[in-house]
């Protein structure tokens, strides 16, 4: 009973705090996976196997996800995802689509930051950026890509069509 109540509370809290778009925060979040482990004491839910997280225009597909809530406020603290790779899709208000993938990703709503690591890639309007790590501020629409000596940042920009 406690586990079911916590899961219901988690879904309610996520639906009001996950991702930046105002209209989307009012939509329910759907979590599906092969297993879901809820740690009430540590305010953590772990999803394993064929993980799908959907809310409005946001979709995440991964092998594993760890959702952490703030112990005091019960607001979403972070969503960490792992995959080979994990996939991210965001449909923006203007209808444009941002796709991303990486071996590891973490979303922190308090800073509107999504950080992708391990063969990170983001594609928007056919433009592609690949890096060891990509930090993306969803609210400010600001991205920083970081490479390594053996893996430089690579970008492909398409000309604008009129």
TrEMBL record:
Residues 1-20 form the signal peptide. It comes from the Bacteria. Residues 32-141 form the Organic solvent tolerance-like N-terminal domain. One of its GO terms (cellular component) is cell outer membrane. InterPro entries: LPS_export_LptA, LptA, OstA-like_N. Keywords: Periplasm, Signal, Transport. One of its GO terms (molecular function) is lipopolysaccharide binding. This is Lipopolysaccharide export system protein LptA.
């Amino acid at each position: 009973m406690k586990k079911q109540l916590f899961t219901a509370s988690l879904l309610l809290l996520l639906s009001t705090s996950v991702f930046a778009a105002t209209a989307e925060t009012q939509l329910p979040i759907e979590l599906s996976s092969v297993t879901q482990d809820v740690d009430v004491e540590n305010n953590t839910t772990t999803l394993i196997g064929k993980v799908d997280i959907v809310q409005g225009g946001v979709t995440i597909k991964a092998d594993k996800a760890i959702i952490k809530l703030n112990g005091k406020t019960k607001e979403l603290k972070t969503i960490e995802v792992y995959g080979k790779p994990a996939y991210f899709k965001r449909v923006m208000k203007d209808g444009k689509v941002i796709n991303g993938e990486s071996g590891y990703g973490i979303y922190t709503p308090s800073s509107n930051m999504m950080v992708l690591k391990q063969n990170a890639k983001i594609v928007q309007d056919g433009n592609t950026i690949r890096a060891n790590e990509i930090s993306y501020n969803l609210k400010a629409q600001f991205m920083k890509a970081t490479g390594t000596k053996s893996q430089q940042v690579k970008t492909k920009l398409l000309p604008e069509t009129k």
